[in-house]
Amino acid sequence: MEHFIVSARKYRPTTFKGVVGQQAITNTLSNAIENNHLAQALLFTGPRGVGKTSCARILAKTINQENNENPDEDFAFNIFELDAASNNSVDDIRNLIDQVRIPPQVGKYKVYIIDEVHMLSQAAFNAFLKTLEEPPKHAIFILATTEKHKIIPTILSRCQIFDFKRITVTDAKHHLMEVAKNEGIIADEDALHIIAQKADGAMRDALSIFDRVVSYSGKNLTRQAVTQNLNVLDYETYFRTTDLILQNNIPQLLIEFNEILSQGFDGQHFISGLASHFRDLLVCKNQITVTLLEVGEQTKTKYLKQSQEAPHHFLVRAIELANDCDLKYKTSRNQRLLIELCLMQLASVTSENGEKKNEKSYIIPANYFKEKGIHPFKVTKPVKEKNTTDAISRPVDQAIPLSKENKIIPSGEPISKDTLILDKTKETKIQTDIANAISTEELSIAQSRKNRTSGLSINSIKKKKEHQENKVEKIVDPANLPTTSFTESEMQTAWAEYGKLQDKKGERIIGSMFAMNTPTLDGNMIKLELPNESMKIDLLNNKAELFQFLNKKLDNYTISLDIIVNEEASKKYAFTPQDKYEKLRDKNPLIDKLRSSFDLDI
Fold first, then answer.
1. Rounded to the nearest 5°, which phi and psi values hold at 149?
2. Which is higher by pLDDT, 90 or 508?
3. At what angle are helices 169-183 and 189-199 packed, to 10 degrees?
4. How confident is the model over 121-161, as pLDDT tens digits?
5. C-alpha separations of 536 from 30, 73, 445, 511 in Å
């Protein structure tokens, strides 16, 4: 078995040209070496796996190769790498300072690469300050870290800082294609694109994932093999889900989501990926933004096709719903139901039966009227005429100009001093007559609209007076009313029914009075005896309603009522079961013993 070297080590760049995705930094370092403008303290900062240590080694090798006869010399004795994670004490920094004083035996420079420099202690940083600020001419320090904010400002001010960026998906994919070609592996472009996405901007992670997938699938690297091995949701899943949403097929959509969960995928990973899918579809809507789509050519064709089927308003609403679901996922108690509800809402956006299908402010479309031959026209407010012939159009509280014949002068006619009556007494009398002719409601409206033109006229006031004079009250002949005979029991039944009706309405006193006092009947006269005058007053106050009920109930309108107050009559009480029990116990105390012996209820 041959020794296997992982791709991250095997394809580590040896020149600045081989560094992926950091062209600005490599060009700067190359120019600094050529122009002899290289600082003695450099700080390489950025995320993991983007080439910080590789650039430090290339730089150390390049500056020593200048004017050297052997280009293959790696100058390993001139490069010192220190891991600050395990050598972070003051003693380690002091040993390093002692080594710095010794000049190199071969080459021109000694390069000290301190990796994870942010792990140094505060004391170690302070011990390193003087040497870092004024090192020997043959010493160059290269500090590398992923967390620049943890380095003290005094160290940062002594270094020339280079910020390494994340490697884009496109650059990582192209580098993986070169590696696959050198290894003799047939790889789909989409498969390498998924690996580059999974690496999240780190080239070392991308090469590690590449080795793992090649070990699984062999020399033929397909998209299905990559998605299965990495356990990621591929584009086809989101394409199928979007098709079901556009078809409003909610049952099949829920089954599809259940299959995704059964494969072990996280619900939040699915919904966030679906939101990104909707974003990519929206990007494909415009030719200007298609360049923002970071996928392979085959997948880009699918995106363009599905983007034509998805309306613009649907994609905007879908992104909003999916993103809202993603935000609520962590705090939800029923996370599966949350995503299923989101999917049902997505499928209802374009549904014909959806309640929010038409978000426009009108119901009838604008072209409906054109098809019917109806042309639009502009509606304007009616212009009020300045000159009106009705005298009442002026506010009531203003003076009305009158002629010598006591006639009201129209507002449109000129008024002279000769025709104007200055007698305020007559003017006030006419205004009073007009005001009396107007009803209270009309007068209040006129008062609230002093600055508006009134709609009343002299003719309308006269007609109203005539109508009130000619109005005749309608008198009903008592001979035409029904006089059906009834018995005393029927009357007493109606009497009790009216008492119950008052009790239901909340009139407890009236209801109890009708329940305790039973009247008698003498012909068509109801005779009732009450114990006090207050009860009589209460009954008389309710007499109109009582007679209306009895007349209708007994079908007789000749009923009369005779109330007699007899204060000496025996008082009547409405006893409760407890009151009755106490009365019996007063007469016979043994009844209490009987109740307790047999555990009886009152």
1. -70, -15
2. 90
3. 120
4. 889 888 888 888 888 888 999 999 989 999 999 999 989 99
5. 117, 128, 46, 14
User: Cα separation of 435 and 160, whole Å?
Assistant: 95
Q: What is the DSSP letter of 447?
A: H
DSSP-derived 3-state class of residue 409: coil
- Counting DSSP H helices and E strands in the chain, the numbers are 26, 10
> pLDDT by residue (tens digit) across 266-316?
888 899 999 999 999 998 988 888 888 877 777 888 888 998 889 999 999
Long-range pairs of 284-289 with CB within 8 A, sequence gap ≥ 24? 285/312, 285/315
- How many residues appear in the chain? 602
Q: Which residue has the tokens 């031959």?
A: 373
CA distance 270 to 268: 5
Amino acid in position 548: Q
Are 514 and 499 in contact by the 8 Å Cβ rule? The answer is yes
Q: Cβ–Cβ contacts within 10 Å for residue 549, how many? A: 17
Measured over the CA atoms of residue 586, residue 590, residue 591 and residue 595, the dihedral's sign is: positive
User: Residue 110: what residue type?
Assistant: K
Whose tokens are 């004795």? That residue is 77
Side chain identity at residue 184, one-letter code: G
What one-character-per-residue DSSP string does 181-238 give? HHHT-EE-HHHHHHHHHHHTT-HHHHHHHHHHHHHHHTTEE-HHHHHHHHT---HHHH
Q: What tokens appear for 87 in the block? A: 């050598």
SS3 for 93-147 is: HHHHHHHHCCCCCCCCCEEEEEECHHHCCHHHHHHHHHHHHCCCCCEEEEEEECC
Q: Could you tell me which residues are beta bridge partners of residue 110?
A: 139
Task: List all residues 6 or more positions away from 289 whose beta carbon is below 8 Å from its beta carbon.
Answer: 283
